[in-house]
Amino acid sequence: MRNTIKDEKIASKLAGDDKKKIEDAIDAAISWLDANQLAEADEFEDKMKELESLCNPIIAKMYQGAGADMGGAGGMDEDAPAGSGGPGPKIEEVD
User: Fold this and answer.
1) Which of 32, 37, 58, 95 is most open to solvent, judged by the fewest CB atoms within 10 Å of its CB?
2) 8 A C-beta contact, residue 41 and residue 34
């Protein structure tokens, strides 16, 4: 995440206060990691989810604000074929 917000293309599209929030959250997470090296895996995952819950909406807002400038950076196009229903073998799920 830190590398993402330091990328000039991304950094130029982020609001200053949003960038500051992300940097502060990253610094807090790194400090927590340094202080809790013996923590359980689920504690690390919780901390990562906490950081993602702060950063992801800001990054999503940035991409939405960029609109067409970002092209298909978010993933597949909506009108792309789903990959099912064509000729070929039919695969059924088995429980």
Assistant:
1) 95
2) no
Q: Which long-range contacts (CB under 8 A, 24 or more apart) does 56-59 make?
A: 58/14, 58/18, 58/21, 58/22, 59/4
Radius of gyration of the chain (CA): 19
pLDDT in tens, 30-73: 998 899 888 888 999 999 999 999 888 888 888 887 654 544 44
- Domains contained in the chain, CATH given: 2-68 (1.20.1270.10)
Task: Give Dmax (Cα) for the chain.
Answer: 56
Q: What is the pTM of this model?
A: 0.58
Nearest one of 50, 3, 4 to 62, comparing CA atoms: 4
Please give the Cα distance from 29 to 85 (Å, whole number): 46
